[in-house]
Amino acid sequence: MRLRLPEERPTEPLTGYKIAHPMLSQDGTRAGFTGVSLGGALPYGVLADASCVYGLRHRAPSRRCDCGFHCVHDRTVAEALLCTTEHRAAALLEVTVLGRYIRFERGFRYARQRVRTATVGPCVCGTVAAALADAGWGRPGWRALAPSCAGCLRGRTSVSLAGFARLGAEGLRVVAGKGASVALTGPGPADDLGVPELAAEAALLQARLDWFQAQLARLGEHGPGGGGRQG
Fold first, then answer.
1. Which whole number is the average pLDDT over 24-41?
2. Which of 37, 62, 126, 222 is 20 to 30 A distant from 71 in Cα terms?
3. 8 Å CB contact between 132 and 167
4. Any residues with CB less than 8 A from the CB of 90 and at least 6 apart, and which?
């Protein structure tokens, strides 16, 4: 006789933690994430439903398959994954577990999720991130993004943290460094931003302006009449 555990009936949504890479659609109109292990080839939105990564027709999660979203119970366990070399540019996600789920000792495997908060690490130079910039890799139709300070953008495709939150929508919050957060549910007016967010936006715009001015100056040096002397 096989014993079955009692069915759980939570009174409020369950919370979990995971890591994932921020993603920006090719046309720059959508923001999402992609996982670091099983299912990493399939970017997902802030609010998303899981499907079987093997193309099978059963509902996710299935007890006879590995499909479904995955997360852990403990935030520190997820944070520890960011120490590995291949995951340094990933973001720490706080998610709400929705729909059917299977509970394990260290986490959940489940059918639907909402990403509530994405915490991004510092730029590779060690400075607090002001934006998410092209990481140099991606998936079909999607660019992977990595944290960047304003000084390290250097003309790469990028989006500010507030901009990423707007594109992701669904109440997404983006947190950088030691707690400077952005909480936007849509393309709201600039009046909704606080001082840290406005300062980050200003730094990002100034960095882009400096880069464009440098490019114009370089082109001017090689323009008509700029390459030689008259004696």
1. 92
2. 126
3. no
4. 19, 20, 21, 36, 81, 82
Six-digit token pair at 157? 């495709």
Q: Tokens 């923001």 sit at which residue?
A: 31
What integer is the mean pLDDT of 221-225? 61
What's the CA gap between 198 and 204, in Å, rounded? 10
Whether the predicted pLDDT of 79 surpasses 70? yes
In sequence order, which residues have a C-beta less than 8 Å from that of residue 76 and are 6 or more positions away?
Answer: none
The whole-angstrom separation of Cα 176 and Cα 133 is 14
Give the pLDDT of residue 190. 46
Strand, coil or helix: what is 202?
Answer: helix
DSSP result, 118-172 = EEE---TTSSPP-EEEEEEEEETTEEEEEEE-GGG-TT--EEEHHHHHHHH-TT-
Separation CA 71–CA 217 (nearest Å): 49
- Dihedral of CA atoms 195, 22, 172, 58 in degrees, nearest 10, equals 180
The pLDDT of residue 1 is above 60: no
Task: Please state, in angstroms and rounded to a whole number, the distance separating the CA atoms of residues 67 and 59.
Answer: 9
More confident residue, 52 or 172: 172
DSSP string, 74-115: -HHHHHHHTTSGGGTT-EEEEEEEEEEEEE-SSEEEEEEEEE
CA gap 45, 33 in Å, rounded? 6
Contact status, residue 132 vs residue 120, Cβ threshold 8 Å: yes
The answer to whether the pTM exceeds 0.90 is: no
Q: Which amino acid is at 113?
A: Q
